[in-house]
Amino acid sequence: MTPVTVRVPAKVNLQLSVGPPRGDGYHDLVTVFHAVSLFDEVSVRPAERTSVVVTGEDAASVPAGRANLAARAARALATASMRRRGKAAVRIEIRKRIPVAAGLAGGSADAAATLVACNELWGAGLTQPELREVAASVGSDVPFALLGGTAIGQGRGEQLTAALAAGTYHWVLAFASGGLSTPEVYATCDRLRAARAAADRRDSTGQAGPAEEADQPRLSTELMAALRSGDPAAVGPLLNNDLQPAAVSLRPDLRRALNAGRDHGALGAMVSGSGPTCAFLAADARRARELAVALTGAGVCRAVAQVKGPAAGAAIVPAERR
Ligand code: C5P
Question: Given strand 268-271, what is the order of strands in its sheet?
């Protein structure tokens, strides 16, 4: 049987507004997801038992076997489509270009691609909304990797509304060496906020009081208007990531990369998601190329990639194009 291959994009968050921690270990958030043209490819074929084989960028740091998010996605789809156990095993091959633990949702992308691929391989017939529900059970960023484009995420990030965004945006991604743990970045964000709130209270009352809750997350209407205009010069200054101070405090070297990008003409500079990748918005393709060269020359990152957004979500690659 021929394998089914799916191509799936990385994402950056144009806005990431993080609320206080919830009882279940997550944070309510409002985010603007934006898929970019850096793709992983995932192929699935029937097998005796489920396995995951990873090649390409960072292959050794991807968790193998049952702990892998793609393997979890295959199991979740088998359960949702009531596939008999003996018929649900697949060999999953991931060709990685999206770096691991980089704030680009690479693992979530592979999970989303696996859902689309297994749905096709098994003829399971789940609709997009049904797939999205299974995706949300696998991880907060997985539903967006199915959808792609530019979209507002709420709740844990899994409740999506497509956003009205005009034009094409040119980005340079600066990859750092090593990754960051998403739970650790969220926990650091909580700690920094608690410390700041305590310091503010000390300043105003002369003594430390009980901790206050962080503000509820809020969508930037200014950013949404800028996205509708399609003008990168309007979008750049409005990029905002509440996790950035936490990522920078865990990786102070990121400050140098962000400053280098701004110094070399980026319209906006931010840490992507929970980091450590930094994303820089350029005015056009030529300026993105110049920025990529300058960042490489400045020696502030491990590697750079020039990408465009918005990119389409997880999609089957027709056999003749493989
Ligand atoms: O949903 P996912 O498994 O990708 O989330 C990974 C971790 O990121 C969670 O365990 C949690 O620590 C953190 N997270 C969060 N709030 C969110 C999304 C993720 O605290 N909205």
Answer: 268-271, 278-282, 169-175, 303-309
Alpha carbons within 13 A on the beta-carbon side of 257: 31
Please report the atom of ligand 1 found closest to the CA of residue 186: 20
What is the distance in A from the centroid of ligand 1 to the CA of 127? 26
Classify each residue of 169-190 as buried b or exposed e, where b means 16 or more C-beta atoms within 10 Å of its C-beta. Answer: bbbbbbbbeebbebeebbebbb
Beta carbons within 8 Å of 127's beta carbon, 6+ residues apart: none
Relative to the CA of 183, which ligand 1 atom is closest?
A: 12
With the most atoms of ligand 1 within 8 angstroms of its CB, the residue from 26, 159, 216 to mutate is: 26
pLDDT at 77 over 70: yes
> How far apart are the CA of 183 and the centre of ligand 1, in A?
6
Q: Strands, E, within 22-58: which ranges?
A: 27-46, 51-56
- The per-residue pLDDT for range 119-140, each reduced to its tens digit, is 999 999 999 999 999 999 999 9
* Ligand 1 atom nearest to CA at 140: 1
pLDDT, tens digit (0-9, with 9 covering 90-100), for 248-281? 999 999 999 999 999 999 999 999 999 999 999 9
- Give the binding-site residues of ligand 1, using a 6 Å CB cut-off: 25-27, 29, 139-141, 156-157, 182-183, 186
Higher confidence at residue 212 or residue 316?
316
Q: Which residues are catalytic?
A: 11, 141
Q: How far apart are CA 21 and CA 189, in angstroms?
A: 10
Q: Is 122 exposed, middle or buried (0-12, 13-18, 19+ CB in 10 A)?
A: buried
Residue with CA closest to ligand 1 atom 7: 183
Whether 108 and 146 have beta carbons less than 8 Å apart is answered as: no
Question: What DSSP line would sit under 68-108, residue for residue?
Answer: SHHHHHHHHHHHHTT--GGG--EEEEEEE-SPTTSSS-HHH
Q: How far is the CA of 179 from the centre of ligand 1 (A)?
A: 16
